[in-house]
Design goal:
Bound molecules: uridine-diphosphate-2(N-acetylglucosaminyl) butyric acid
Distance between the termini: 44 Å
Number of helices: 9
Number of strands: 20
Order of helices and strands: HEEHEEEEEHEEEEHEHHEEHEEHEEEHE
Oligomer: single chain
Radius of gyration: 21 Å
Largest sheet: 5 strands, antiparallel
């Protein structure tokens, strides 16, 4: 049994634990790497009844201010092949493992499938929460199951794919289950019959430029890494949380109206007849690409990413997000929904 006194820390700076590099403090903080330690922390009377915030890589998080509760920093580790049948490999990783390192490790082992999701910041445990996706692939495609600790009941629960309610950048863990679970481990099913996903325009162009007609999984991973490095800011160099808004999905009539007024509007037809629009394009057209208000602005190579040029607070980020949203709504009549999770209490003015 682990004594919570060893794990619980009071008044901890979270600046280094969120990739937007926003300044905020946690009233209480614990880095947990096994269930016994987690239980000991949660049983500690000093944190009884306080709200908790489960923290992974902090790469999809906006800290509006200090967090007056307990931050549980997930450090569950380990990765292994747990099963293999005629059709697939089943590979599990601890929630605290780096997502990108996990992806590269699966490829090196000869278990392809996740290569299009290379270089996405964050942890394995955070991946199902927003069903991370990129370059024509969503994590849900290869998700098999997960184990989570239910902070409300103190029990460990298993979730299969259906339980998770995955959608575009969405899951049960962002909806009804928000804030209630700590994802301890995730298992992926990687089919032995590998199908490369190379239809996304940027990927196709990068592979062509490299002269690759039948790329290997590692070559696709390398191409994706190159595209991301070119287009997206590296959180190690400039604070950001990836795409700040979801790509909006509109009905056919709205799309028709917009397409008539704006030739060149990028759109992706959905199975239900609606159309997904490119939020980055809308923001760019609204004049925000490379524009900033004080320390926060839209990235100059991808307007969908808000960046902290240095010294920003959560309030600065929220001010730019509001202004961008209002300008896009005024110009196109489309409401943008933020993608990250928000936490913390802004200081009262
Ligand atoms: N575009 C512009 N100006 C911009 C940005 C984009 O005109 O400033 C246009 C592009 O030219 C393109 C379209 O908008 O025609 C879409 O842009 P892009 O291919 O860069 O992708 P995205 O839709 O902006 C989504 C994901 C990214 C993911 C990429 C690649 C969302 C919210 N974002 O971005 O995910 O890497 O596709 O698959 O779905 C993330 O979620 O944090 C993230 C980075």
């Amino acid at each position: 049994m682990t004594a919570s006194a060893d794990l619980l820390q009071q008044d901890v700076a979270l600046d280094a634990f969120n990739t937007l590099r926003l300044p905020a403090r946690a009233a209480w903080y614990a880095r947990v790497d096994h269930v016994d330690g987690l239980r000991a922390v949660l049983d500690d009377p000093r944190v009884a009844g306080l709200p908790s915030l489960v923290l992974g890589g902090g790469s999809n998080l906006v800290l509006a201010g200090d967090f007056a509760g307990l931050v549980l920093h997930v450090a569950f580790h380990g990765r292994s092949k747990v099963q293999e049948d005629a059709d697939a490999y089943y590979v599990r990783a601890g929630g605290g493992e780096s997502w990108h390192d996990f992806v590269r490790w699966t490829l090196e082992q000869g278990w392809p499938g996740l290569e299009n999701l290379s270089l996405i910041p964050g942890t394995v445990g955070a991946a199902p929460v927003q069903n991370i996706g990129a370059y024509g692939l969503e994590m849900a495609e290869h998700f098999y199951s997960l184990r989570a600790y239910d902070l409300a009941t103190g029990k460990t629960v298993g979730f299969d794919k259906r339980d998770c309610g995955f959608g575009y950048r969405d899951s049960f863990f962002k909806q009804a289950g928000a804030g209630r679970y700590l994802i301890a481990a995730v298992t992926f099913r990687l089919p032995k019959a590998w199908k490369p996903v190379t239809g996304y325009a940027d990927v196709a162009a990068e592979l062509a430029a490299r002269g690759l007609v039948q790329p290997t999984p590692l070559q696709i991973s390398d191409a994706v890494i190159a595209i991301r490095r070119r287009k997206l800011p590296d959180p190690a160099e400039i604070g950001n949380a990836g795409s700040f808004f979801k790509n909006p999905v509109v009905d056919a009539a709205t799309y028709a109206r917009l397409a008539a007024a704006h030739p060149g509007l990028p759109h992706y037809p959905q199975a239900d007849g609606r159309e997904k629009l490119a939020a980055g394009w809308l923001i760019d057209q609204a004049g925000w690409k490379g524009r900033r208000l004080g320390p926060v602005g839209c990235y100059d190579r991808q307007a969908l990413v808000l960046v902290n040029h240095g010294g920003a607070t959560g309030a600065d980020v929220i001010a730019v997000a509001r202004a961008v949203r209002a300008d896009v709504a005024a110009r196109f009549g489309v409401d943008l929904e933020p993608e990250p999770v928000f936490a913390g209490t802004p200081p009262t003015p």
